[in-house]
Amino acid sequence: MTAPAPYSRISELPSHAGETVRVRGWVTHLRSSGKVAFVVLRDGTGLLQAVLVKSSVSPETWTRFGQLTQETSIEVEGEVRPDARAPGGFELAVNGLSIYGESPIDYPIQPKEHGIDFLLDNRHFWLRTPRQRAIARVRSEVEQAIRDFFYERDFTLVDTPILTSASGERSGLFSTEYFEEGTAYLAQTGQLYGEAAAAAFGKIYCFGPTFRAEKSKTRRHLSEFWMVEPEVAFNDSEDNMRLQEEFVSYIVARVLERRQPELKELERDLSKLESIKAPFPRVNYSDAVEILQSKGSSVTWGDDLGAEDEAILVQDQDRPVFIYNYPKQAKAFYMKENPDDPRTVLCDDLLAPEGYGEIIGGSEREDDHDKLLARIEAENLPVEAYNWYLDLRKYGTFVHSGFGLGLERTVAWISGIHHIRESIAFPRTMHRLKP
Ligand code: 4AD
Ligand code: MG
Predict the structure, then answer these.
(1) Which atom of ligand 1 lies at the shortest distance from residue 358's CA?
(2) Looking at the chain, which residues constitute the CATH 3.30.930.10 domain(s)?
(3) Percent helix / strand / coil, the chain, rounded to 5
(4) What CATH number has the domain spanning 123-423?
(5) What is the DSSP-derived secondary structure letter of residue 209?
(6) Which ligand is closest in space to the CA of residue 188?
(7) Domain 10-101, what fold?
(8) How many Å apart are CA 118 and CA 94, to the nearest integer?
(9) pTM exceeds cut of 0.90
(10) What ligand 1 atom has the least distance to the C-alpha of 227?
């Protein structure tokens, strides 16, 4: 008996030209002339056209072809042949076909227009479609770029807890009972823990899911999203912005370098990504308010900026824009008071071009114990929950800063998709907990 032919993934077929291999995957298209039949299958690495000639396969194999439907999982065996017209440049001359799992003809996703709610209800299948796969691959590349960027710069990865005892940001909190300890909150940010770790390692980052009970139903809010948060000892707010522009430029360059097929599938305008190079423009918050007012916005000094304001500020810009030093009242308690204008704090929001809005929020942290305590009290936060955080200002306080980049917003921007719910495999929004 001869050994069975080796398995190959579709992307690896060019290196097996002329050989007999087995390929496993799911049926995407079927076509037959009665004498010659074509099965296009997908294995996650590409598409393969498998050709069956009735006169040269067994009657059982030919019959099995007739049982195939969209999404049937199968194995095909045959010779890898170059074919300029086939997807990937190779086809498989089939001599064997086995069915792993049949797929009834009522498979929900059909080649026609489906409404967004239907697609989201069928997210477990929608993920199999080319556009969704392209977005997921861009996301995977962005995550790898994030890890590489910090690894290359000698940051230590510190994983921070998801179950926490106190709020980190102003947005809504998810809570759950925690044994005898009272209420636990799902982390809105890993930052406060990152600050503690920065005093231990100098440069750290955390990267994980964060949770916000956002009642807003916008195209840029999820209730569960991923955030990467570096924190650097002895970096001030200026250093912080420089790190951000270097970081964002690195991520975009990486996607351009390695994800061309996906960007093509997404019909992304590459020129909009190729211009993303540091340095990025910087606009002081007070100047931003004047610009906005001159363009008809009703914003007044002291307000946080809304989505429409953010869109105005990036108009005509070919790269992200920093808006820096917001009013204290618009931002979180931990931001450092600006010594030159104590009404404001040393912080920045980085706004993506093309109206994608804020992708990063960052700041220098208040390193003065008494000022920080006063802010915690002024915000009516429970001081006892922040004692450990205040301690960082008591025992060797230090200038430090950091930021949080929202992964889904970044992926949506780079992919050029309208709504961030497509940039995560299984989105969690106000009205969606399934699948
Ligand atoms: O501006 P935010 O709230 O900043 C922080 O959480 C800081 N603790 C970060 C830090 O300094 N370490 O959130 C940071 C980013 C936003 O710019 C946005 O990209 C994303 O997180 N983000 C969301 N993404 C999706 N859905 C939501 N509901 C989001 N809220 C924030
Ligand atoms: Mg923010």
Answers:
(1) 17
(2) 123-423
(3) 35, 25, 40
(4) 3.30.930.10
(5) E
(6) 1
(7) OB fold (Dihydrolipoamide Acetyltransferase, E2P) (2.40.50)
(8) 36
(9) yes
(10) 21
